[in-house]
Amino acid sequence: MSHIPEFKNFIGGEWVRSSSGGTLENRNPANRNEVLGVFQKSTAQDVESAIEAACEAYTSWRLIPAPRRAEILFRVGEILIKRKEEFAQQMTREMGKVLNETRGDVQEAIDMSYFTAGEGRRMYGHTTPAELPNKFAMSVRMPLGVCSLITPWNFPMAIPSWKLIPALVCGNTVVFKPATDTPHSAYNLVKVCEEAGIPRGVVNFVTGSGSEAGTPMMTHPEVKLVSFTGSTEIGNTVSRACAPSFKHCNLEMGGKNVIIVMDDANLDLAVDGAIWGGFGTSGQRCTAASRVVVHKKVLKDFNERFVSRAKLLRVGNGLDPQVEMGPVINESQLKTVATYVEIGKEEGAKLVCGGNRLEKGEYSKGYFHEPTIFSEVDPEMRIAQEEIFGPVVSVIPANNFEQAIEIANNVKYGLSAAIYTQDVNKAFVGMRDMYTGIFYVNASTIGAEVHLPFGGTKQTGNGHREAGIQALDIFSEWKSIYVDYSGKLQKAQIDHE
Questions:
Q1: pLDDT of amino acid 58
Q2: Which of 52, 252, 324, 466 is catalytic?
Q3: What is the mean pLDDT of residues 329-353?
């Protein structure tokens, strides 16, 4: 048996074992017999040490000019470019999605590093005329302090970069805990930060379960912000944990995203979008297109093309360049997908493609599921309302454009939506009337770019937006400053004539 590497926590600039002495295995979802490494089973004591290190480092890090902080973050991007292929290969082995997608995941971290480094020379506040004479008024940003970052497994380098890089450029220090299924990609990002020269204690990294390590990251009195991406159910727990001490709380949660296909749509293009949106990352994206609302005039034609394409998708190990869809992340998620397939059947939806776990031959050691499509789905069915987070798509008929918009909006989430149409008027009405944080015209529901804000409405989030310059609002506080050089006491509003 080959040597299995052990990966440690990063606390105060040192790579250290957990105080528990325990470790967690990191396994390949395409071959569960392959152990990629063991990671620390961290405890509240480890989190306490990490927060102490972050507190100590904050006193000096916040005083480093933002352009200097940004130069270090620019180096993070430079290093990631050099190691992109290596990190992508490791990510595919760790979480299963195909190699082209993991390359994109690393690229997103590169893009975020470069974009946010540029903000180190801007981070603009405002100057504005004061209402009284001989008085100057302006606003500036200031950092929060120690930030806890808790990230999911489906984008194990991109999503951490959305949080880590803006937090650092604003002058905060961080304690970062990745999902237990994907600690290696997070480890790689932290190692790059160390190599780039980020000072000791500014970035701290602990691995372990949410109950053991995640909870103290949310409740510790020195933590000023908790930034979490994951399910709406866990997000609710995070929000409640932050509420008693009024911690800032940034939540990016679930989605039940929709593609609307109108009767004038380019159907081949719409099918391309539905395939990519529904089965990219095996449907394990918060922006996955798990619903397709189709105008009844083109429903039969669309269904035939969609099912035909889905049946041709090659499922397998994401390292194989011929494979188009990898495994789901673990046994638990595979069982969730299977449960929803049964729910769809029981609800009366018509299973027209897939529906089964793949277990024979090359699939026997992994967590593989067929691309699955239900047609004749009622919009109130559970499969059309609840987030499945797997390769299951519901096709829902609509009589007209207005009904399609109504169906599309009638879920508790509001992350991403798309419309396929050649009618510019319908496109603009869709832009206006879809109550989502992201909207696409003649493109799928996935493909966000780092220079625009990312996030959603309703139970998708709590109003914040990651990425873009809007991310700075998560990781900084506004301070308004008034300088009175009149030499006398002036009373705003009262001394107004």
A1: 98
A2: 252
A3: 98
Taking alpha carbons only, the member of 239, 220, 213, 240 closest to residue 228 is 239
Q: How far apart are CA 343 and CA 476, in angstroms?
A: 44
CA torsion angle 407 411 414 419 (round to 10): -20
Q: What pLDDT was estimated at residue 3?
A: 86
Domains within the chain, CATH numbers bracketed: 6-253+461-480 (3.40.605.10), 258-441 (3.40.309.10)
User: How far, in Å, CA of 376 to CA of 384, rounded?
Assistant: 11
Could you tell me if 48 and 213 are in contact, meaning their C-beta atoms sit under 8 angstroms apart?
no
Residue type, 107: Q
* Catalytic pick among 147, 249, 286, 353: 286
Inter-CA distances, 478 with 126, 170, 204, Å: 10, 12, 26
Answer yes or no: 170 catalytic: no
Please identify which residue in the block is written with the tokens 């009844």. Answer: 296
Q: Which amino acid is at 365?
A: K
Looking at residue 1, what is its pLDDT?
Answer: 46
* Residue 301 host element (H or E): helix 299-312
Tokens of 492: 């705003």
- For residue 94, is pLDDT > 60? yes
Residue 246, sorted as left (phi over 0), alpha (psi -120 to 50) or beta, turns out to be left
**Within 10 Å of residue 410's Cβ, how many Cβ atoms?**
13
CA quadruple 400, 404, 406, 407: dihedral sign: positive
Burial tier of 246 (Cβ tally within 10 Å: 0-12, 13-18, 19+): exposed
Strand order in the sheet with 146-150: 14-16, 9-11, 203-205, 173-177, 146-150, 223-229, 248-252
- pLDDT at residue 286 in the model: 96
Amino acid occupying residue 398: A
Determine the Cα angle at 246 with ends 180 and 143, to 5°. 80
Please indicate whether residue 370 is annotated as part of the active site. no
Please choose, from the candidates 148, 174, 400, the residue with its C-alpha nearest in 3D space to the C-alpha of residue 294: 400
Classify residue 297 by its DSSP letter: G
DSSP per-residue string spanning 417-470? EEEE-S-HHHHHHHHHH--SSEEEESS-S----TTS-B--EETTBSS--BSTTT
- Tell me if 135 sits within 8 A of 482, measured CB to CB: yes
